[in-house]
Amino acid sequence: MERHTVVAIREGLHARPAALFTRLAASQPVPVRIAREGGDPVDAASILAVMTLGADAGTSVTLSVDAGGHGEDEETATAVLDTLEEFLSDPEPG
User: Fold this and answer.
1) Structural domain range at position 68
2) CATH number for the domain that contains residue 62
3) Looking at the domain assignment, is residue 53 inside a domain?
4) Whole-model pTM above 0.90?
5) Active site positions, annotated
6) Which is nearest to 27 in space by CA: 90, 80, 87?
7) pLDDT tens-digit map of 51-89
8) Cα 73 to Cα 9, 29, 44, 57, distances in angstroms
9) Cα–Cα distance measured from residue 13 to residue 16, given in angstroms and rounded to the nearest whole number
């Protein structure tokens, strides 16, 4: 399952916001990946991988999780994507 969103964080996914984002991604019950539009997905729980995306404010990104094709798994995936999209949509998270 995928979700396209735009990074609204004023300083983008750099330093402190990237650390908060990766911590949030790592706390999810399923693995999460993030990619810049047209780029390769990286582990959203890896601070180094997220920072190398160069995702500034206004950057389009894709969040993805493996829903496994089951109803309960899809609900979990949707909740995870909602949580991470909400974080990225906040100009001043944390």
Assistant:
1) 2-89
2) 3.30.1340.10
3) yes
4) yes
5) 14
6) 80
7) 999 999 999 999 999 877 656 688 999 999 999 999 999
8) 29, 10, 19, 31
9) 8
